[in-house]
Amino acid sequence: MIPVKTVAVIGCGTVGASWAALFLAHGLDVQATDPSPEAEAYLRRFVVRATAQLAELGLTGTGKLSFSPKLADALQGADFVQENAPEKEALKQQLLADIDDLLPPDVIVAGSTSSLLRSRLVVRCRYPERHITAHPFNPPHLVPLVELVGADADVVERAAAFYRGIGRRPVILRREMAGHLANRLASAVWREAIYMVEQGVASVADIDAAMAYGPGLRWSIMGPHMTYHLGGGDGGIAHYLSHLGASQVRRWAALGTPVFDGDTQRQLVEGVAEEAGDSSVADLEAARDAALIALLKLRPQIR
Amino acid sequence: MIPVKTVAVIGCGTVGASWAALFLAHGLDVQATDPSPEAEAYLRRFVVRATAQLAELGLTGTGKLSFSPKLADALQGADFVQENAPEKEALKQQLLADIDDLLPPDVIVAGSTSSLLRSRLVVRCRYPERHITAHPFNPPHLVPLVELVGADADVVERAAAFYRGIGRRPVILRREMAGHLANRLASAVWREAIYMVEQGVASVADIDAAMAYGPGLRWSIMGPHMTYHLGGGDGGIAHYLSHLGASQVRRWAALGTPVFDGDTQRQLVEGVAEEAGDSSVADLEAARDAALIALLKLRPQIR
Q1: Which UniProt keywords apply (chains A, B) (predicted)?
Q2: What is the pLDDT of residue A3?
C-alpha cells in the first residue's frame, strides 16, 4: 500500500463529501476544495453525519479536514487525489491538466467519473499515466465497490492497494467501457423493470419488491455468474449451460426495451410516489443507509 | 387467510422439498408425493437440514410429514396444493387434470413453475380458476419472494394471504408473462454480465464482485425504481428522468447481447471455477444459505 497520509478531495458534492468522510474515518487527513460558495458548509454537514455512521462500523479515525476554494491549496503536499468534479468532459479535461501543473507526477490522481471515459479525460494531461478512474458506488463511504480503469498496471495496482487498505473492494477493468461494470448491470435491470411497468405486468412497487425479496437478496451475497453456477445443481454452471443455456438465449430474445415516452415516465413517477408513501427522499436515504450499515456489520459472514 | 392445516406437496425435488420444510416449520402438515423411487429419502434428508436452518430464524413448528408415491394419497384431505413437477408442459397438463379429478374444486392448486405459462398448463383442467402459478425463488424456504399469477382475483388474494401467513412476500402479476418478473430481471443482468465477459472487460469473478459489493448490496434493500428515485437527489425520480432519462436510453443502446458460443461458455465455466476455488457447489450453497439466514435475521431492519 502507498503510504498515504493526506488526500486531496477535488469537488465536494455528494460523492466528494462521502469520500472525504471515509478517508477521515480511516485517519487520513483530507484537503478539500470546491469553487462553489456553499460547498464547505455542505461538506462539513455531510461529514458529521457520515462520520457517525462510520463509527457504527468501528471506523473511528480522526483525520484532519481542511477546506479551501483554491485547487493549489488542496493539492499542496497531497499523497493521493480523489477528483469528483461535475460530469462534464471539457471541465474535467481542464481540471486534470491544471492538477498536472501543480502536483508532482508520481502522485496518483483518481477520478470518480461514472459516465465519462478515462482516455477522453486525460487528453490534455502531461502525465496521463498517473490518472485513473476510480468509480465508487453511492454512497461511497458505505458501499465497498470501487471500479478501477487505468493505462499503467503499476499505478492501478498501487491504487487498488490503497483502496483495499481503507476497506474498499476494488475491481480492475482490463479496458475502459462506458458505464464501467456495475452501472451497466444496473441499466440492464432498470430497462427490463421499466419494460414490465410499460407492459402493465405489475406495479412499480411490486417489481421493486420482486427484486428486493428475490434475486436482489441473493445478489448481495454473490454475483450473477455464481448464482447460475448454483442454479446448475451438483454439475454447476457447466451443467446449467448445457441444459438451460438455450432457454436463456430464448429468454434474452423476450426481454424488452421500453418506449420511454411521457406516459411511461408518468407511470414511473406515480408508481414510485405510491411505493414511497409518506417517506421523503431524505427519509428513504436514511433508511437505506441504516440497512447498509446493518448489512456491512455482517461481514465477513456475507463476504 | 385460508384455514390451511394440510398441504399436499406434489413433486419432491429441490423446490418441493424446500416448500415442504417451510410448511412444516410453520406447523402445517405436509402430504408429499413423487413417483421417483429416490424421492422420499431425498425429501427427508432435505427437510432435516432445512428445518435446522428455519429454527435459526425462530420457526420451530412441528407439522407432520407423510409421503406416498400415490398422488391420491397426498391429495386426501389437503387444504392447499403446491405442485412442483418437472418443467414439462404436457406432463403438468396431465398432472393438473388428474388433480382436478381427485380434489374438491374449492381447494387452491398452486404451481411452482418458473418458465411455463399458467394459461397453457390449465388447458385440460375442469376447474382452471382454482389453479394459480406461485413461483418461489431458490431456496424457497429462505427467499421470501413468491410470484403469483391467476385468472380469479379472489383465488389469487386468498393464496397471497396464505403465503403472507407463512412469512412470504407475494407479488401479484396483473397478467402472465414468460419468466414472470424476477427471472426476467435475472436474465437481463446475466445477459449483460456475460456480454462483459465476452468483451474481455473484466474477469467472471470481478464482474460478480462488482455486483455483490455494489448494486447487489443495495438491491437487497430496494428495487431498481426506488434506487433511481434516490439517484435523483431531493427531486427524486422525476428529477432523474428529466435530467438523466436521455442518458439512460443511450446507455441501453450500448448494452450488449453476447454471442453465446462454445468459446464464451468455456470462459464462463473457467471463470466460475477460478472464482469458486476449492469450494464445491454444496459448499457454496451452504455459505449462501448461512448468509441468507444472517440477512433474514436483520428483518425488519432491511424490510
Answers
A1: Oxidoreductase
A2: 85
Residues 6 or more apart in contact with residue B123 via CB below 8 angstroms:
B93
Q: Mark whether B20 and B42 lie in a shared domain.
A: yes
Mutate to test the interface with B, among A142, A169, A237 (most CBs of B within 10 A): A237
Predicted local distance difference test score (pLDDT) of residue B1:
47
Could you say which residues from 22 to 81 on chain B have a Cβ atom under 8 Å away from some Cβ of chain A? none
Region A226-232 average pLDDT: 91
A4 touches chain B (CB under 8 A): no
What single DSSP character describes residue A229? Answer: H
Residue in B14, B138, B189 to test binding to A, most A beta-carbons within 10 Å? B189
Give me the residue from A147, A231, A269 closest to B237, CB to CB: A269
Record: contact B298-A303, CB cut-off 8 A: no
**Domain assignment of residue A150, yes or no:** yes
Q: Read off the C-alpha cell for B226.
A: 426506488
Structural domain contains residue A303: no
DSSP code per residue over B178-236: TTTTHHHHHHHHHHHHHHHHHTTSS-HHHHHHHHHTTHHHHHTTS-HHHHHHHTTGGGH
Q: Chain centroid to CA A211: how far?
A: 20
Q: Which residues of chain B fall short of a pLDDT of 70?
A: 1-2, 300-303
Q: Does A270 touch chain B (CB under 8 A)?
A: no
Residues of A in contact with B14 (CB under 8 A): 233
**A133-185, pLDDT tens digit by residue?**
999 999 999 999 999 999 999 999 999 999 999 999 999 999 999 999 999 99
DSSP A214: T
| Domain range for B87 | 6-172
Q: Are residues A146 and A233 in the same domain?
A: no
Is residue A7 within a helix (H) or strand (E), and if so which, with residue range? strand A6-10
Nearest chain A residue to B180, by CA: A201
